[in-house]
Design a protein that fits this description.
This protein is mainly beta and 432 residues long. Strands 2, 4, 5, 8, 9 and 10 form a six-stranded mixed sheet that branches. The chain has a four-stranded antiparallel sheet with strand order 1-3-7-6, with no helix packed on it. The longest helix has 26 residues, at 2-27.
Length: 432
Amino acid sequence: MKRKLLLITILLVGGLFVSCSSEESGSDKTETPVITPPLAITITDISSEFLITGENLEINGTNFVNKNYPTKVFINGVEVTPKEITNSKITLSSPAVTSGVNTLRIQINNVESTPLNFYAIAKGWNTLNVLGTAEITSSSVFDDSKTIFSLVESGSPRKLEAKATGYTQASLNIGTFFGDFKMFDEKTGVITGTYRILHTDNAFQSTNENVVDNAFTKEINGLNIGYLDGKNSILYTIVGSQIYTGDNGKTVVKNPPPAWSTGVNGGQLRVNIGAFGKSTSDGKFYQLGILNDSKKYGRDKYKNIVMESVTGYSDWIVKDTISDIVLNQSFYYKFQNINRILSIGANKTLVESTDMLKTWSIIKTDVSAVFLRTETQWYIQSGDKIFVTKDSGKNWELELELPTDSKVNDISFSKNKIIVSGNKGLHYLKIE
């Protein structure tokens, strides 16, 4: 009996030993982790090669993620934190950039993408140098595009494209035009010469051309753009004629000058239209200028001329030809509401009429030019500075300081941008 117990004990102890040895042996078996090296990183494109400060930047490409190593994004050598990252897209939320050319690269462990350059422009005022020292007549800007269109003194319209190196100048290849130039958006616009008009809806890749004769304009480069939207435009001339199109120049309506606007047999001009526009007060169109009726009033007796139309190109009603003009005052009037007309008077005074040119009151002195953004928000050049009022001239704020002897030819607006054009390459863009 004792021998059996001893044998059982030995077997039990041996079994435990074998069992423990087996468990200890299994715990020593460890797997070596598999490290996947990063693949070649490729940036195929970015959301914008011309970034406005505050905009997000999306980077598209391949192999942006590796399970073993973090993805690092660098702008100008400084690491930035992505808002979102997948294997094919990285989103940067308002990344820190510098004005000018910036360099972007992506790195995973020791693998780097090829560096990619993009351009950044700050909000606020920016100096544009792309047109050199040319006299810039006018420019157009848009909220939904970074492209700029300008007309320079040589009569050459220019398209300024936003590229990774900054604004790049491109000719529109439509010849020389010394008249008026305005774009409603990046594709739709009109340009005029003395007798020629080109309308486009594809940025002048193709155009609809119309021609008028000397009797229609009576003035060199006398076709002015009075109204323009995405489809309709109205051109006007100094003698009170208009050209209307509702289909970007495919068909036009030509309203000849009134018979009384010129002298006998087309001689001396009797009327000079200096302003044309649509009034916010009543939705009607107005043209304003001066009338020289020497037969009725005597030699050098000038009168105001005010005409009104519902369409802007037909059925004009003469509202006034008897009130006296104010001498030494520009008849290139500015208005958005016909009940508030602005002009530059003698000794560089900004004056205002609230009764359709009959009487005037002084708003501000030392003003060489005025440009209207809204009924109440006006921009003026005073000396070598631009000032703005947002309350119809009651208060003024310094907006921009200009180089010495600057001359502003034009200030144009979109909802969120302002562009200044002038002499000696004067060109400023404000992004609000």
